[in-house]
Amino acid sequence: MEATTEARVPHKLTAKGQATRARILEHAAELIYTKGVHATNNEQLRHAADVSGSQLKHYFPTKESLVLAVIAWQADRVLAFHRGERFASFDDLDTFRAWADFYVGYERAYQEGCTLGSLASEIIKADLDVHDELASAFDQWRDIFRDGLQHMQRLGRISTDADPTQLANLLLSAFQGGMLLAQVARDITPLKDALQAAIDHVQTFATPPDAACSCPLADGEG
């Protein structure tokens, strides 16, 4: 994601330094998710990451620099997963259904929720200047879907009547909303239904042979 220099590694680090910084970020993300931004303090983070106060200050001199880096770190993980070979650029309906199947079939999905979405729900309430970074992360996630849908249009797999940006917003919203409701219900069904409905809507724009695709989502078992 596009982030401030402060959010990225501020200077060249050794391999050991990079590992230490990554460990701090991983524990910071977990603490913020479980306790919230305001309830997460340096003492807790030092203990969780097994670092000294001077190390923590060296890598993250301010709380805002830490939060910005956590956003960038978490976003990078989500975006890298969606840009990986597994989904082949989201260039057909089967790929979108495979994406939905992955999350519906992940047995802990309704317990863990969306890591980036959960992080955002905590950070957005903090009095920190991080809203642009959060918006950028979700914009890039949406754009992965939009770019795939635009490619599908160029290949003639969906009609020119489709609005790739609108459909991408629908898919991301269905995922975020469905995941939240699944967490509340402790049942994967809301996520399954939301993604099924969103992808079925995309399918209404499909041209043959994609229009004939009707692959059910996974049952969500292990």
Q: What is the beta-strand fraction?
A: under 5%
What sort of overall outline do the alpha carbons produce when their principal axes are compared? elongated
Order of helices and strands: HHHHHHHHHH
Chain oligomer state: single chain
What is the SS-derived class? mainly alpha
Terminal CA distance reads: 32 Å
Helix content: 55-70%
Supply Rg.
Answer: 19 Å
Mean pLDDT across the residues is 87
Most strands sheet: none
Number of helices: 10
DSSP strand count: 0
The residue ranges in which pLDDT falls below 50 over 5 or more consecutive positions are 1-8
Keyword list:
mainly alpha, 64% helix
SSE layout and pairings?
Elements lengths: L14 H21 L6 H8 L3 H7 L3 H20 L10 H13 L3 H4 L2 H9 L7 H24 L9 H22 L3 H15 L19
Helix pairs in contact: 1-2, 1-4, 4-7, 4-8, 5-10, 8-9, 9-10
3D structure, described in words:
It is a single chain. The chain is built from ten helices and no strands. It is mainly α and 222 residues long. Helix 4 (63-82) runs parallel beside helix 8 (131-154), helix 5 (93-105) runs antiparallel to helix 10 (189-203) and helix 8 packs across helix 9 (164-185). The longest helix has 24 residues, at 131-154. It is elongated and about 60 Å long. The two termini are 32 Å apart. Mean pLDDT is 87; it is low at 1-8.
Could you provide a short overview of the structure?
By secondary structure, the protein is an all-alpha fold. The protein has helices at about 15-35, 40-50, 55-60, 65-80, 95-105, 110, 115-125, 130-155, 165-185, 190-205.
